[in-house]
Amino acid sequence: MTQYVFDNADTRAETRFAALAAFDAASHAVLAAAGVAPGWACWEVGGGDGGIGRWLADQVGAGGSVLVTDIDPHWIPAADRPGLTVRRHDVVTDELPDTTFDLIHARLVLIHLPDRHAVLDRLTAALNPGGRLVLEEFDLRHPPTPRTADPHHVATFDAVHTPLLRALESRGVDATWAGSLPDTFVARGFLDVRVNTTTSLWRGGSEEIQLHRVNAEQLAGPLAAAGVSPRALADFSALLEDPTFTVWSYPMVSVTGTRA
Ligand SMILES: C[S@@+](CC[C@H](N)C(=O)[O-])C[C@H]1O[C@@H](n2cnc3c(N)ncnc32)[C@H](O)[C@@H]1O
């Protein structure tokens, strides 16, 4: 099985999915602009808790179909809509589904996969001519900036977040992937390439800011190896609960293209 740094077997995955749901409205808008409509066949890759897959199923209706796959789909409730199918599937190594799709969507999946260019080939091959590919990824070249005048807040955040980014990169996450996607789509011959970016302000104590806490907790080993002390981690967690602390989210870059 492909290595994924934030294993869904960890119960903190639930907190991660709840935090990422802060981007759902933006994802829905991008998918609607991509044209998703009744009767379409869709593949939601690395579906997480299945929230986007369920939304897609509502858009395509009983006459369409949505396949939601994940290497660990246990957070996805049993398919509860007509045409919705949930399956365990490794997009790097497993055989492609035996049908092709009008729309393929993956949010925060390929950025984790060292074989992301080969995966992009596979996803392209799984699209019908005229089918839409929508990839959404965090642009890690623009790390979150604390929006605070308190230099202690900035130091406390960066003391964990900077080594966290380094730990992710050393585990195969590509910080430049999101920024390169528009050119990558064009170079691969996708038509009508569109790019949207969504950034919001996260406040201490909010559901979405918990993403930073669970990411740091799941990387506690590599952070300790990089010299991050338990005290620094505790201060970081406390800061994330402080309602006077705000930090910009990672920019979510959404790229849509049409297969020629
Ligand atoms: C950061 S989460 C994002 C979940 C969801 N797409 C979202 O945005 O809320 C990444 C998801 O991709 C899945 N994943 C990681 N590697 C995968 C692979 N090789 N094949 C399929 N899914 C994978 C993980 O299990 C996890 O559910």
TrEMBL record:
InterPro entries: Methyltransf_12, SAM-dependent_MTases_sf
Sorted UniProt keywords: Methyltransferase, Transferase
Gene3D superfamilies named among the record's database cross-references: Vaccinia Virus protein VP39 (3.40.50.150)
Domain Methyltransferase type: 44-133
GO MF, one annotated term: methyltransferase activity
Keyword hit for Protein transport: no
One record GO biological process: methylation
One matching Pfam family: Methyltransf_12
Keyword Signal appears in the UniProt entry: no
SUPFAM superfamilies: S-adenosyl-L-methionine-dependent methyltransferases
PANTHER family xrefs: PUTATIVE (AFU_ORTHOLOGUE AFUA_2G14390)-RELATED, TRANS-ACONITATE 2-METHYLTRANSFERASE-RELATED
Designated name of the protein: Methyltransferase domain-containing protein
